[in-house]
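USER: Please consider what follows.
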Amino acid sequence: MNNIIDINVLSDKALLQKIGYFIQQTRIKQNMTQNDLAKKATISRSMLSLIERGDNISLVNLIKILRILDALYVLINFDITEELSPIQLAKGEKQPRKRASKISNPNTDTEDLGW
């Protein structure tokens, strides 16, 4: 599973299998049995086995497992750096946007302008 692939084309099931494989290989590298990891993460061994095979996983269980495996670093891409746009800076705004707005994009507007 070390092939270079575009993650965007993977199905949900394939992504779950990729996550399960990562958990399994990280656990094995740390010389930890399924039973050991399951006990530390307070889940059943059968649940861990299902997760490693690509079954559905709750976010809480994923976080617990990654924490035990010292692999929370995989979530670093969820960290958002707050950046203000030049317009926000010019207006003196100090807070990033908290909402999206419906501003029509001229490139996607389907209205016929009669040209």
